[in-house]
Amino acid sequence: MTSYKVILLRHGQSEWNEKNLFTGWVDVPLTEQGRAEAIRGGELLVEAGLLPDIVYTSRQKRAIITANLALEAADRSWIDVKRDWRLNERHYGALQGKDKAQTLAEFGEAQFMEWRRSYDTPPPPIEDSSEFSQANDPRYADLGDAIPRTECLKDVLDRFLPYWESDIAPDIKAGKTVLIAAHGNSLRALVKHLDGISDADIASLNIPTGIPLIYELDENLVPVKAGGTYLDADAAAAAIEAVANQGKH
Ligand SMILES: O=C(O)[C@@H](CO)OP(=O)(O)O
User: Fold this and answer.
1) What's one GO MF term for it (predicted)?
2) How far apart are alpha carbons 215 and 54 in whole angstroms?
């Protein structure tokens, strides 16, 4: 049986993960813990004998630096890299820069969870004049009017899937071990697609920072094992729980 491997890696802890702020497209750096998670992620790849041939990242430095640190730890800094905005985190609209606990307290749990995890309800759009807007960021100048001002998970799938089909899937089918260094919600979109998760059930799926998630795929790019395999399953379980509970403590 033909089988392919793809490695999903959410960036290590960012400064705004630590501060519990909605982040989205704001380009925040990793914390020291996040850098350590990225290096550990690379070591786990070596221990598993999984050496990437090509790396895909978003245009955001928390994913880019995570990929760099993981690949350095695996002595694979030299592999080809492709960056695309379609792998960016979900744009969090007017919530970008807001404290998750304060937002939960102000709007209540139902509204908070609808904005965080519903499939098709985006938060209110961000004003271009906001300090947390990307409307005038030169890195997105090529998007023109396509630059988002808010996104729900469905919007992320709609912008991510064409890139998956045009670029990532062909590399996988060419037999390359592909590393995708991206974000909690852009990777949730990919997992939804791969595992065929329903719009309702994807709400309860969370992805931890810095722990490689391996999918073995058959010739049709269908997972051999639904949900894939985390290289450090115990650490992943604890970290998934923490992401699910963000804002609630
Ligand atoms: O703030 C964000 O951009 C994301 C990921 O950190 O948060 P959440 O898990 O709440 O979607």
Assistant:
1) phosphoglycerate mutase activity
2) 16
